[in-house]
Amino acid sequence: MITLTRLSGSVFVLNSDLVERIDATPDSVITLVDGKKYVVAESLDEIINAIRTYRGEIIAVSTQLADLPPLPVPVPAPPDRPLATVATLPSAGHGDS
């Protein structure tokens, strides 16, 4: 998520994975994949740098996580009481009398 500023001055965060394109007309207009548009105070270069930084941080964190030893797999505790055996049911209608 990147932090952006509306022209009114209010700050919001945007999922940069949903950005389809950014236009500078001269205000920066961000168009999302669903067609929704946001006009923001940041310049085209500032938005691109924010997206690059965010994605770089994701890669850096994922690399650190890949270097960690795997978590131990928990062994389930035995049940408090033993499980009952399953009895075989007689076949019905085969004339075994």
How does this model look, in words?
- The protein is built from 1 helix and 5 strands.
- It is α+β, with helices and mostly antiparallel strands.
- A hairpin with a 4-residue loop joins β4 (28-32) and β5.
- The longest helix is centred in the middle third of the chain and has 24 residues, at 44-67.
- The radius of gyration is 29 Å and the shape is elongated.
- The N and C termini lie far apart (74 Å).
Shape category: elongated
Largest sheet geometry: 3 strands, antiparallel
- Total strands: the figure is 5
Measured distance between first and last alpha carbons: 74 Å
- SSE run: EEEEEH
Helical residues, percent: 10-25%
Poorly predicted spans: none
- The total count of helices amounts to 1
Summing up helix and strand content along with how strands pair, one would put the structural category as alpha+beta
Q: Roughly how many Å is the radius of gyration?
A: 29 Å
As laid out across the biggest beta sheet, the strand order is 3-4-5
Instruction: Indicate the mean pLDDT.
Output: 89
Question: Could you provide a short overview of the structure?
Answer:
The chain has one helix at residues 44-67; strands at 2-5, 11-14, 19-24, 28-32, 37-40. The chain is α+β, with helices and mostly antiparallel strands and 97 residues long. The strands form two sheets. It has a three-stranded antiparallel sheet, with no helix packed on it.
